[in-house]
Write a structure and sequence with these properties.
Blueprint lengths: L1 E7 L6 E5 L5 E9 L4 E10 L2 E4 L3 E2 L5 E6 L6 E8 L5 E8 L2 E3 L14 E3 L9 E8 L4 E8 L15
């Protein structure tokens, strides 16, 4: 398993979290935010045909909540966002095999840093391993994802000069 990212500041003074659903499929991602930062994140998994919610990671104080609902054939392939003035993440999007999902904390006024994209080129649901990150008392301060590379179904050809 490889750890990619994080997007944001991996602040050692904050609390860390990780979500690794194993064979359970992520079906919902709940994100709370205000006009400045991503405040909290929570995941819904399909386990034995039922929706099971993860622990909520981050602050319980927010202005808005968005729900990303993934279709049965949809899976996460990456993330993008910017580091905001207040140490949180702004302009945050989830990337899937069907597009990009947001919005959350989309005010460019609070994003002094350029947008960062974590794109591990996931081509198969089995490659996505989960999420990790950190949060402070007021916002999510970092988020990244785990990737579990799977072997190619075709052989690798080595070319040598003779």
């Amino acid at each position: 398993m490889m750890k990619l990212g994080p997007l944001g500041c991996d602040d050692s003074s904050g609390k860390t979290w990780e979500e690794m659903g194993g064979s359970d499929r992520i079906s919902h991602i709940l994100v709370s935010f205000d006009d400045k930062n991503l405040k909290s994140i929570q995941f819904g998994y399909v386990k034995n045909g039922a929706l099971v919610m993860s622990k909520k990671h981050g602050s319980s104080d927010s202005d808005s909540t968005g729900i990303v609902r993934l279709n049965q054939d949809e899976y996460v392939t990456g993330l993008s966002g910017s580091l905001g003035y207040y140490g949180g993440i702004t302009n945050f999007l989830f990337h899937t095999n069907r597009g990009k999902h947001g919005p959350s904390a989309n005010d460019d006024t609070y994003a002094p840093c350029p947008k960062i994209e974590i794109d591990p080129s996931i081509l198969d649901r089995r490659e996505f391993g989960g999420f990790f990150g950190s949060y402070s008392s007021s916002s999510i301060t970092s988020i990244g994802n785990y990737v579990n590379p799977i072997p190619c179904s075709h052989g690798v050809t080595k070319h040598e000069k003779l």
